[in-house]
Design brief:
Length: 209
């Protein structure tokens, strides 16, 4: 489970970075390069938007449960944030503002998608978005906790993680590549997952003290 989340976040990071780059290009096309580049508080806005891409993705994915659709909605959210850059206030928290816009984009997506024509009660939507925001923050904390834990692994175990969860190879193919039996790989991966889970939990506990 833990390693699966790691794989998910590695793939999603690539998606949201691509989404942000596309959104910047599109915003420049909409507003004109000079207007975008000279906007007030632009530097702080871009920094906040960039730093919070994974949180935005996690938030949207928690509501939609589909990677491709979440990526599309995040890109739309980025564009709306660009359009509303005049509302950005560096002295105020960025995420509540961004989450509110993302929530409206999710609701618009659900209304516009024929297979998901839903009428969400406003109170239910608020509850869903609040819970999703919490989950996004939790996953982001987990990602940061895992980073130093991965560095503690041996080169052999890091290779196993990379092959199985980042490249998503079948266990049989992982075994063939490293010259070990399928059974040995299963046992090794189980031990590595436990090691990562214990390390991440320890680091999260230290942060919460």
């Amino acid at each position: 489970m833990l390693a699966t989340k790691l794989s998910l976040w590695r793939n999603n990071c690539n998606l949201v970075v691509t989404s942000l780059k596309d959104s910047v290009k599109e915003a420049q096309g909409i507003f004109g390069r000079n207007e975008v580049s000279q906007g007030k508080n632009l530097e702080g806005f871009v920094r906040q938007l960039t730093e919070n891409q994974t949180r935005l993705y996690g938030y949207v994915f928690s509501l939609l449960g589909d990677h491709a659709r979440a990526s599309d909605v995040v890109q739309e959210t980025n564009l709306v944030l660009w359009r509303k850059i005049d509302e950005f206030r560096p002295e105020k928290p960025f995420l509540p503002w961004a989450y509110a816009i993302a929530r409206f984009q999710v609701l618009a997506h659900l209304r516009d998608t024929s297979r998901d024509r839903l009428l969400l009660d406003e109170e239910l939507a608020e509850a869903m978005s609040s819970e999703a925001g919490q989950k996004a923050d939790e996953l982001e904390s987990l990602r940061f906790a895992l980073r130093p834990c991965l560095e503690l692994l041996t080169d052999t175990n890091r290779q196993l993680i990379r092959l199985r969860y980042l490249r998503e190879l079948p266990i049989a193919e992982v075994a063939a590549q490293v010259g070990r039996s399928v059974g040995a790989i299963k046992v090794a991966l189980l031990r590595v997952r436990r090691q990562l889970a214990e390390c991440a939990q320890k680091r999260l506990a230290e942060v919460q003290r």
